Amino acid sequence: MSDPICPLCNRPIPDGVPQSLHHLIPKLKGGKGGPVILLHDICHREIHATLSEAELARAYHQIEPLRSHPRLTKFIAWVAKRPPNFNSRVPGKRRPR
Description:
The protein has four helices and two strands. The chain is α+β, with helices and mostly antiparallel strands. The mean pLDDT is 90.
């Protein structure tokens, strides 16, 4: 069986690599029990460091808009050059309050 593919960065997610489920509509915004996608943990953390729950619910509740966000596009280009098991600390929240 092949490894699942991270829909954000399109890299495989091998067994043992930190991974997490991302609610496309945040739970706090009505997405509890809604659709989820499996992501590398680093990709999931970058999404939440970039966008607020309100922004995710309003405009970024599908993978295509997430992939086209300017900061996430830069992140994807950067992380795509790393091996699938690459993990790094995502700096604290960088989005304006």
